[in-house]
Design goal:
The complex is a heterodimer of chains A (about 230) and B (about 350). Chain A is of the alpha/beta class and about 230 residues long. Chain A contains eight helices and twelve strands. A five-stranded parallel β-sheet of chain A has the order 2-1-3-4-5, with helices on both faces. Chain A is globular. The longest helix of chain B has about 70 residues, at about 85-150. In chain B, a hairpin with a 2-residue loop joins strand 4 and strand 5 (about 270-280). The radius of gyration of chain B is 34 Å and the shape is elongated. In chain B, helix 2 runs antiparallel to helix 3 (about 30-50). Chain B is α+β, with helices and mostly antiparallel strands. Chain B is built from nine helices and seven strands; from the N terminus they run H-H-H-H-H-H-E-H-E-E-H-E-E-H-E-E. Classes of the chains: A alpha/beta (about 230), B alpha+beta (about 350). The interface of A and B includes residues 195, 200, 207, 212 and 223 of A.
Chain lengths: ~230, ~350
């Protein structure tokens, strides 16, 4: 990461949204960069090397998804995608094409800032080499070394698959993961269509960890897209 | 094109058949009865096939009658001249009757078209009043608050400024809800909505719906009771989440603040039944069906919401091959309930 304030590149063609984002992001914590088209965006990425991209999927010159796929061939820079609601297929495609997160328009600035912080933190962890040996979010604690999981200090017994699923989600805490991504990374490439496996294990995990599985604190469903482990 | 062609083939065939049957089976039939049979056949042809075909079949009928039934039979004899008057009357009666029949059919069609047009206009005016009221109210609030913030920048207290800013955010979210609802119902009606069915967990969609409504339902006691072994159900998770969001949002709008909500589901045979119950005033008698209609608001034109929430619920549940309904709850309140077919969806554990 570049020294000093992280820089954020906003690729968005609508002038009013850019204006709002500039005010929201361009304050003391971040350096604000902008591009109006995918082509400008590519130039900005290669010359200014930003720390994160906020990408609008509906760009005038190139489909945002296409831009993302091109970008992923040479850069691992975190990307947060902005989409319209009801276009869950686009969200899934964006996440499967390498986006780190998405936000549905219209969104609150607080939510965007939270997603940016989470994405920058994950990116820093990736660069920092060794991952933390312990994950903690409120009353939930995962000890990766001893392979133990605690809720409110009491150990919870998990099956090996449940443990793998939970640790995978915890390593990507705060990030939306599509069903396909989770199935591929936890079960294996042959299982990407086995949504049923995922749903059943998620159900068991929730019933073991959550006080009220129907109002989960950590294991949150993003309907039509996938899951997210909410970190507190 | 082929339809028009058929129109000129079937009526003559019918007349030939009638002639053959009458001639073979009832050779001694009184001529007046034969005439009546032709008359009846041609009136039916007029109603069914219209002006052109009936003229053809009438001419054919007169020729056939003359040839087969006017003595001397099986020839066009000079004596037939004395029948000219009756031929003429027969031709005239058939044409007149067919005209009347065609006209009455046309006016019936016109009346139906007018009725449909009127229905469409009612829909459009309901849509326009909904759009103008529900979209303009938050817009007016946003414009008012924002212009106050810009024009009186130095004169408003920090607290007022914060209030106005909150109003802008909240109202823009409300506006977004309205637009989403309008878009969704339009998509349903245009038939452009395809279901993304997958083995779905009721617990998950209830969870994400409650997550989306956390603010709205903050003061409510929400009791969710789902059996741990509730099977997965094939449904479109996003649309099903919308059903729960709309039902719970309705509870928030139409029941007293702080009154409890219960969400229950159970499996019976080959279906899973879901119930959302409240302790509100209940649905007025006679309105149990009407509340699911578009733009209907329970007796209050200025009630919150777009009047589309329950209409969307019904459209979603219907798309899943079922029906949603409401019944009065014992001890007060209402129960919204629907059942989803399992269709061989596998169990959860």
């Amino acid at each position: 990461m570049t020294a000093g304030r992280p820089s954020i590149l906003v690729i968005e063609d609508d002038a009013e949204i850019r204006r709002v984002l500039k005010v929201g992001l361009g304050h003391k914590d971040y350096r604000y960069l902008e591009a109006l088209t995918a082509r400008e965006g590519t130039t900005e990425v290669s010359t200014r090397n930003p720390d994160l991209i906020v990408l609008d999927l509906g760009l005038p010159d190139l489909d945002g998804l296409q831009f993302l796929k091109e970008l992923r061939k040479w850069s691992k820079i975190p990307v947060i995608v902005l989409t319209a609601r009801g276009k869950e297929k686009d969200k899934i495609k964006a996440l499967d094409s390498g986006a780190d997160d998405y936000l549905t328009k219209p969104f609150g600035m607080g939510e965007l800032l939270a997603r940016i912080r989470a994405a920058l933190r994950r990116s820093a962890e990736r660069h920092g080499g060794d991952a933390e040996p312990v994950f903690e979010s409120g009353d939930l604690k995962i000890d990766f070394v001893r392979r133990q999981v605690f809720v409110k200090g009491a150990e919870v017994r998990l099956s090996p698959m449940e443990y793998r699923l939970l640790t995978y989600l915890a390593r990507h805490a705060g990030q939306v993961l599509t069903q396909k991504q989770i199935l591929k990374d936890v079960w294996g490439a042959a299982y990407v269509e086995k949504n049923l496996y995922l749903r059943v294990h998620m159900h068991q995990l929730r019933h073991k960890l959550e006080a009220d599985p129907a109002q989960p604190r950590w294991l949150v469903t993003e309907s039509g897209v996938g899951y997210r482990l909410r970190s507190e | 094109m082929s339809r028009r062609w058929i129109n000129y083939i079937v009526p003559p065939l019918a007349i030939i058949l009638l002639t053959a049957v009458a001639y073979r089976l009832f050779p001694s039939m009184e001529p007046i009865n034969v005439v009546m049979l032709y008359l009846l056949a041609n009136v039916l042809i007029a109603v069914r096939y219209g002006q052109g075909p009936v003229i053809v079949s009438t001419v054919l009928s007169i020729a056939a009658y003359d040839y087969y039934f006017v003595p001397p039979n099986l020839q066009f004899a000079p004596e037939d001249e004395k029948y000219f008057l009756s031929f003429f009357i027969m031709f005239f009666v058939i044409l007149l009757t067919s005209r009347l029949a065609i006209r009455s059919r046309r006016s019936a069609e016109k009346a139906m078209a007018a009725e449909m047009e009127a229905e469409k206009e009612r829909m459009i005016s309901a849509l326009l009043s909904s759009v103008s009221h529900d979209l303009r109210t938050p817009l007016a609030t946003i414009a008012g608050a924002a212009s106050t913030l810009t024009s009186q920048e130095g004169e408003i207290s920090a607290e007022d400024r914060r209030n106005l800013q909150e109003v802008i955010f909240r109202e823009s979210e409300r506006l977004n809800e309205h637009v989403e609802n309008l878009l969704q119902i339009t998509r349903f009606e245009a038939g452009g909505l395809s279901l993304e069915k997958d083995c779905g967990s009721v617990e998950e969609v209830v969870g994400s719906a409650l997550g989306r409504l956390r603010g709205t339902l903050a003061d409510r006691k929400i009791d969710v009771s789902l059996p741990e072994d509730l099977p997965l159900v094939p449904f479109d998770a996003l649309l099903m989440e919308q059903v729960f969001v709309n039902l719970l949002d309705n509870v928030a709008h139409y029941t007293p603040p702080g009154s409890p909500v219960e969400i229950r589901a159970f499996c019976e045979g080959k279906k899973v039944t879901v119930e959302v119950s409240d302790r509100g005033p209940g649905v007025p008698s006679g309105e149990h069906e009407r509340i699911f209609a578009k733009f209907y608001r329970r007796g209050r034109p200025n009630a919150p919401g777009t009047g589309l929430g329950l209409a969307i619920c019904r459209a979603v549940i219907r798309a899943h091959g079922s029906e949603i309904a409401v019944r009065d709850r014992e001890g007060g309140g209402s129960v919204f309930h629907f059942s989803l077919p399992l269709e061989g969806g596998a169990g959860a554990s």
